[in-house]
Amino acid sequence: MSRFLKKRKKTKGLPPGSLVRVGSHAEAPLEITLVEYTKEKITEKKIAGLNECIRSAGNEQIMTWIDVTGLADKAIMKEIGEKFGIHSLWLEDVLNTDHRPKVEELDNLVFIIIKIPSLSENHRHVSFEQVSVFLGKTFVISFQEHLSDTFSSLKERMHKGTGGVRGAKADYLFYALIDRVVDDYYDVVESLGVHVDQLETALRADFKNFNPDDIILLRNEFLYLRKAAVPIRDALKTILASKVSEIDPANKRYFRDAYDHALHIVEAIDGYRELLKGQVDSYQNTLNQKMTEVMKVLTVFASIFTPLTFIAGVYGMNFRHMPELSWDYGYYFSLGLMLVVASCLLYYFRRKGWL
Known about the structure:
Elements: E1 31-37, E2 42-47, H1 51-57, E3 63-69, H2 74-84, H3 88-95, E4 102-105, E5 110-119, E6 126-135, E7 139-144, H4 152-160, H5 170-205, H6 213-241, H7 252-315, H8 323-326, H9 330-352
Helix pairs in contact: 5-6, 5-7, 6-7, 7-9
């Protein structure tokens, strides 16, 4: 059950807001990428300190995206919280990579935690990277668990000037980051859905060699995926109902579109889980049917041998006055009687369709 709840020994007994990383992945070194953009131009660069980030975020003439990858440097994390007014409880949630996806609002910030899904090489095992995003009036701060740049495709669109991000406020970038994550859920659900179809075909084609554990393992992956997808749907619903000034009401339509996608993903996950449940039921029903057939055959043979056992028992009694015992053909008569009884029962069972 470690996939559903990580160990928290390091945080046990510590006060709320303690910056302790919780997670199963190795800590990656912290890197900061500063992206400044307007409708006309965009710049992107790696930086070592926060002074330039603070200056950029305070400039209302440009939009600023501070992309932090790796969560190893607690001092920098604490400084980011102090400079941008991020409460230590929220920073604790950022470092707790096992945290449930959620959205929270403060006077001047909107904070969301989302999970990016990915599949193993065999496309059967789901893992997640946690991404935390803060939205301010003119800036967005994102925290990625690993150094791999999940949002490289979004940055590429921004450099090309496509997609509408550069011509909009920071809340549109906030939406674009969420939408990028939601797109990954589509890919993962579709890949797992292929395995569901393959299991259905295998179950019907070769029941004898079918392994029911494959169904159980795949159902667990969908359950794990649903655990991350449902809170994202709920978070987007909260954003739609929000009246914070950081989100332009005109841009709510984009968040509504992302909510529709998240809702579709959850419904698809539930649908595949029902299909897998149906496969389990189908496998069990087929297994029970085959067992019933075996039991029926055994019952028929038991029913045939019951009167034969009775005949053998009668002639096996050691009474003195039994005419058949002294008859020369008594032995052949008893065998013939058994054959006739067995043949009649076989004929009767076949007529009834029991054999």
